[in-house]
Amino acid sequence: MNAENQEIMHQIISQNQRLLQNLNTQRHCTCEVRQLISEITGEKIAENTEIRLPFYSDYGRNIKLGERVFINANVMMVDLGGITIEDDVLIGPGAYLISVNHQLAPHQRKELDLKPVLIKKNAWIGAKATILPGVTVSENAVVAAGAVVTKDVPANTVVAGIPAKIIKKVD
């Protein structure tokens, strides 16, 4: 990343951290919450999408939200690598969606590895679940509470555990 792009990124992070602090510490009506999150993401949030506070992000501009999404309280989105949440997704309280990792080699440890997270239509992410970089949770899939998802989740399945494994199919 060149110096100019890095400066723009730092400006966005600084602005969005101020917006997030306002969002999470002041009283807001539902329309104000949507407006502030629209400013953070740079995209209009649908009126039928509900986001409970507090809500956290490290960057904000790489979050894409569909229609009729429900995000419960204390969700953290580490979105520099991109997070897309399609229509009708439910995200439980305290979930983590992480699209950024660090390099494993000690001499490269401060370098970032960006891999997008995709949550497809009608998926349900349980309370305190963690979705790691590069993971796709497919349509109608369920991630059980507390699961740590390291690999793609097939459509119409339930995954649970650490690391998450398929425990059943959804009809």
Q: What does it look like?
A:
Helix content is 20%, strand content 29%. It is an alpha/beta fold and 171 residues long. A hairpin with a 4-residue loop joins β17 (157-160) and β18. α1 (3-25) runs antiparallel to α2. The protein is globular and about 45 Å long.
Helix/strand layout:
Blueprint lengths: L2 H23 L4 H12 L8 E2 L3 E3 L5 E3 L4 E2 L3 E4 L4 E3 L4 E2 L4 E3 L1 E3 L9 E3 L2 E3 L4 E2 L4 E2 L4 E2 L4 E2 L4 E2 L7 E4 L4 E5 L2
Parallel strand pairs: 1-4, 2-5, 3-6, 4-7, 5-8, 6-11, 7-12, 8-13, 11-14, 12-15, 13-16, 15-17
Antiparallel strand pairs: 9-10, 17-18
Helix pairs in contact: 1-2
SSE sequence, one letter per element: HHEEEEEEEEEEEEEEEEEE
Q: Strand fraction band? A: 25-35%
| Helix count, DSSP H or I runs of 4 or more residues | 2
The biggest sheet, with number of strands, parallel, antiparallel or mixed sense and barrel status, is: 7 strands, mixed
Derived from helix and strand composition plus strand pairing, the structural class reads alpha/beta
Assign a percent range to the helix content.
10-25%
Q: Given the C-alpha coordinates, what overall shape results?
A: globular
Total beta strand runs: 18
Low-confidence stretches: none
Instruction: Going across the biggest sheet, name each strand in turn.
Output: 1-4-7-12-15-17-18
Alpha-carbon distance between the two ends:
45 Å
